[in-house]
Amino acid sequence: MNETFPANTPQPPGSGETFPDTAPGRTPTPNTSPAAAINLHSVPDPRPRLTITRRAVQSELARRSLPDFARRCVPGFCPTPFHTAYYRTLDAFAKGLVRRLIVSVPPQHGKSLGSSVLLPAYALGIRPGLRIALASYNLRLASRFNRRIQQLIDSAPYAELFPDTRLKPLHGGTGNKKEAAAPSAAGAGNLVRTAEEFDLAGQSGGLLAVGREGSLTGNTVDLLILDDLFKDALEANSPLVRDNAWEWYNAVARTRLHNGSQELIVGTRWHEEDLPGRIAAHERVVGLTDFSQPGTLPPDCWLMLNFEAIKESPPTPADPRGKGEALWPARHSRALLDARRRLDPHLFEALYQGHPASKEGLLYGEGFATYDELPATVVKRGNYTDTADTGDDYLCSLCYAVGGDGMIYLTDALYTPEPMEATEPQAAAMLRRADVREALFESNNGGRGFARAVGRLVPEVRIAWTHQSRNKEARILSNSATVQRLARWPRGWEARWPELARDLLGYRRLYRANRRHDAPDALTGVVETELDRSRRTIRAVGFRSPER
Questions:
Q1: Sheet harboring 369-371: ordered strands across?
Q2: Which of 339, 266, 233 minimizes the C-alpha distance to 86?
Q3: Helices marked H in 65-170 — which ranges?
Q4: Which residue from 120, 201, 279, 414 has the least number of CB within 10 angstroms?
Q5: Residues 398, 523: contact at Cβ < 8 Å?
Q6: Model pTM score
Q7: Rounded-to-5 percentages of helix, strand, coil across the chain
Q8: How far is residue 228's CA from residue 111's CA, in Å, rounded to a whole number?
Q9: Which of 174, 234, 223 is nearest to 199 (CA)?
Q10: How far is the C-alpha of 407 from the C-alpha of 486, rounded, in Å?
Q11: For helices 420-433 and 447-457, what crossing angle results, to 10°?
Q12: What is the pLDDT of residues 360-390, one digit of tens each?
């Protein structure tokens, strides 16, 4: 029997020849019979021709992976190796291979586009029955994500990829006959589409956006996304805000989940007791080092991926950068990152490296600058006093001079646990000795009475008092870099005020690890007063002129 080749099949050398069937061990020989010399190209191919275009291939790839979906639906999307790894991790989450995921990403590295816009849209495309809850530090930001997701689902590329994932048109009705035949569980006329919530037409899926501490009552959540639950360092450094966020997560968000629900926490690390930090203290968390891990972990285990802005940990398949390499050098170069690190090493370690607790653990790890003489120009001589809160606390009263260069030069200090009746004359003597003209006392815990008593002893000094209502921990931690940059101490100050130096230089970033907070609290008050006096509300003022 002779064998012929279809017209669309690649021909072997000498395509005008035909070859007989070959038995095992038999050497094939050309059939030179004239009857067998058939022109292969004259034989029609009965099989239908299958034409696959490049666009069809790209569409199929976009349905199968989040990175390709992003390339198809986001104009100009050019992923770096970091973005490819990030989106590959989110892709495993979207497909249900990871039940609980934590991702830490530095600021301005494209975190939210992937986690809070592309991921929800893609997940609803491949799993249109999902009920998604998306939360951020306030409703305004969460609603912004919601609107961008809706815009993406409404786009032509998305409709081509996932025609069954549709929204209610903005002007009412879905305008789709297929939906009339297969209405959503809520009914075609009851579809919701607002800046906070939307339902899918003809499907049971949808999305609800909420701010931190927002309500999820009555909503079953299949997929929970928490993107940046803290707005800034002031919020993250507030124990009250952190406790409220933790309580909302446990009492509200988690109560909406079921056995098959998934959780994604993505954001920038601010504090060692933020949500990822507290979860790590109570539950099992495994670091993502290889992309073979998704699908192998038990349901109650968290998978965590931390992208350092400057690579310091060992290379892994998930992040193969060498030590010292920037995460996104085209946007955030190593030189730029180094400059940011010099401004505030502790903050950089948290925000950009994903390690909220500094290696040293000290708030003022590098110490303070010192001076030998005051500058030639002094624009103000002032004082800030924080009275003792409890019997174990210290009174901290700091005298200072503001130089023409904007620096704050500490000139004298009173740091003692003695009672007010003993410290009143000491404080008055120090104010006179330092030639202070204005003194501000915190009125908390008897401070107003202390200020009046000191004012009677030094009538030439203008005495004012203020109620400090802001959280002490948040103030101290948030302003630490500014305090270190502006405050100057006289050379040898450690020997002159040893207890003050010990409590300042030994102060740890973990607030509750410190025995006392008086010294950094007062020093922070000095800097706050001179940087932004308008923020303070002066409750009362006492003043006595020298003539009286």
A1: 369-371, 487-490, 408-416, 395-403, 378-386, 438-442, 462-466, 538-542
A2: 266
A3: 66-73, 81-94, 111-113, 119-126, 139-154, 156-161
A4: 279
A5: yes
A6: 0.63
A7: 40, 20, 45
A8: 10
A9: 174
A10: 5
A11: 50
A12: 478 887 789 999 999 999 999 999 999 876 6
